[in-house]
Amino acid sequence: MMRLVRHGLMFGNLVEVTSPSMVSRYNRALEHLTGKTTQLEEFHIDISGFSPEIGDELDDPNYLNPHGCNRLFIVLSTAQKTAPLLNAHFSFSRTVLRRYIDQNEEQLFALTLHDAVVGELLNTVYTIRSPLDLFDIRQIDIEADTVGAHVEASEELSSKIHAFMSEPDGWWDDVLISEMIELSKHTGDIIRTPLKLETQSFEEGNFHTSHYGGLYVFRDVKRTACIASRNVDIVSDLPVKYVLTLQDRKAIATYLTRNGLIEAIHDVLGTDAIDILNQKLDFIAIDLAASLGEDLSDISRRDLRNLKRKYHSDLPEAYHALESAVRRMAAGRKVRWPDPDDPAFFYLFRSSDHSDKMLVNRLLAELTPLDFRQLFICHKDAFYDHYRTWSEPKKTFVAQFLAEEYMVDKAGTRRELFGAEPGMQEDYLDYGFGQDMGPWGAIPKTRDDDDDDEDDDD
What we know:
- This protein is α+β, with helices and mostly antiparallel strands.
- Strands 3-4-5-6 form a 4-stranded antiparallel sheet, with helices on both faces.
- The protein has 2 domains: 2-122 and 139-203, no CATH class; 261-418, no CATH class.
- The protein has helices at 2-6, 20-34, 52-58, 93-103, 105-112, 131-134, 150-166, 174-187, 249-258, 265-269, 273-291, 301-310, 317-330, 357-367, 372-378, 380-387, 392-406, 410-418, and strands spanning 15-17, 43-45, 72-75, 117-122, 139-146, 200-203, 207-209, 215-218, 225-228, 242-245, 262-264, 349-351, 437-438, 441-442.
- Residues 439-458 are annotated as: Disordered.
- Pfam families: DUF6638.
């Protein structure tokens, strides 16, 4: 796995914690939340404040995520907002944390100048004892304050200031004035710099969880479903219309199509789809060549064509069906879609444009594991699991390909493969000139190419 780390494909974009003051601040926060501390003098943290080095030190990768539910977080700096979320058990967790930091960035910036902010992603479920518990997770509340309770003290001071200003005898209440002075020593000037972090709520309908081997929960669609990566026995009697596993390929294809969740790449991109599908063919061929011991270092396009010719009859069914579809596209002929049970079927599709685009593309990535690029982008945990089983030649090729072809333009590659990333309605602005428009034209939006670099996701 160190090969991936060196290329920035694992533990990439984490925030460094190296100064003694920040380490001390983190330790106070860690002890406040968990009763534990670290002896490390420097480490890295993700968006939630989780450190893989501290996880190793404590022999507890879930030290900020007890029971894989209601994730705790530590914010040392708002710079954490672009970091990934490691050890994610729910696909919505990073999105919720990112939105929370974005919406409270000014307050968090002011608070973290003096202390760490600690909090929790709360829902009504505290322990997952059965798959049914997952369906009780709907609203995620975030509560946060500094370790020194600056926000709570600020609210108390605000209340006393109100009493001082409104009560007739407030000006002569020496006890009240003394309390205000003591609180202001702790909070600073809350008139000029208000310290306020209200509890915020986020609704989550459709999501993926790593619990029970991986489950995709679709509740906010016309036809509800739970799709399990593994044995269906553990997900019987769930409050959904369909309970499926990844082996139910025809049923999954029907389900995704009827709900309008997927689209054929060729129908959307036309002839531009050919290049994307040809790359998928390359990935399948690479898998076979690597398993047969071929040297894939510095492989050229010509070398790859020669490998395809050499092993053409040995390539899997998915390759031949996909190759047939690409040939018909290139010739301008009507494409004969393979049956959903055909291994090539899901390679020809991507998520349609809706708010759960990344969730559906994650599901498609599990159904098309030989497309290692989509697996890496959309489902990193599954990618790492597969990577551990690959031969050394394939590991070398994949790491080099992703570093040279994907990491140099992540946003551009995602846009080419999956289309525009869905915006959140809460982020749209309207000042009376139309959505995202100001009096002098479109309101510029900040870009963050690292938003989806890690899966995402508690």
